[in-house]
Amino acid sequence: MWSHYADSHRGLCIGFTEDLLEDLNTSNEGQEFSKYEVSYDTNHPFLDIQRDILYGHKYGTGDAFIDQCTLEDDLLEASISKKHQHWIYEDEVRFYTKSYGLYEFSPSSVDHIIFGMNASLDDIETVRNILKTEEWSHVELLNAHRKPCALELEIPVKLA
After folding, report:
1. Could you give the CA distance from residue 27 to residue 18 in angstroms, rounded to a whole number?
2. Do 35 and 94 form a contact (C-beta atoms < 8 A)?
3. Are β-strands 140-146 and 110-115 bridged in parallel, bridged antiparallel, or unpaired?
4. pLDDT recorded at residue 145
5. Cβ atoms of 155 and 119 closer than 8 Å
6. Where are the beta strands (DSSP E) in 26-136?
7. Among 46, 33, 44, which residue's Cα sits nearest to residue 84?
8. What mean pLDDT comes out for the span 49-78?
9. Mean per-residue pLDDT for 125-134?
10. Cα–Cα nearest to 94, from 15, 38, 40
11. CA angle 9, 130, 109 (to 5 degrees)
12. Pick from 42, 8, 20, 4: which is nearest to 146 by CA?
């Protein structure tokens, strides 16, 4: 995941607590967030939906409005929560809301931050300075390192 999403291991990963969904819904008035645990498969994410459309198993209730709403919900969930089996090592969880923008969360929802193995010392120091206040003092800082003699990363390596 680091090479795909974190600028070739130069970025960071924020580890959240299990309370993040509740916190997002509380901290962002008027927004409703949903949590999706990603499932991994070798089939195309829309294959089951296509079969249900073709054979009328799920979207043939006779009520066009209900069928349309059900189809829209299923398409959204499939596009957000399904990935190819190749990516299973990511063990991903996604959060979704129907509008875009920046959203607030409380410091208590952050458990740890993992820096990529190529993160610059300046970037690490910048994050340390941001986290100096009392409300962030619980956040553990970790650093990823290449595992000796393997094509793997070791996490966590706690930063001093």
Report:
1. 15
2. yes
3. parallel
4. 84
5. no
6. 34-37, 39-41, 82-84, 93-96, 110-115
7. 44
8. 88
9. 95
10. 38
11. 80
12. 8
8 A C-beta contact, residue 11 and residue 116: yes
156-to-15, 32, 104, 120, 143 alpha-carbon distances in Å: 12, 33, 26, 17, 6
**pLDDT at residue number 134:** 95
Match 């209730």 to its residue by tokens: 61
In whole numbers, what is the pLDDT of the chain averaged over residues? 88
Element holding 121 (H helix, E strand): helix 121-130
pTM (global) more than 0.70: yes
**Angstrom distance (rounded) from CA 124 to CA 147:** 21
Q: Alpha carbon of 128 to those of 102, 123, 125, 148: distances in Å? A: 22, 9, 5, 27
Q: Can you read off the two tokens belonging to residue 116?
A: 């990529």
Q: 25-64 burial, b for 16+ CB within 10 Å, e for fewer?
A: eeebeeeebbeeeeeeeeeebeebbeebbeeeeebeeeee
* Minimum mean pLDDT range among 57-61, 78-82, 119-123, 125-129: 57-61
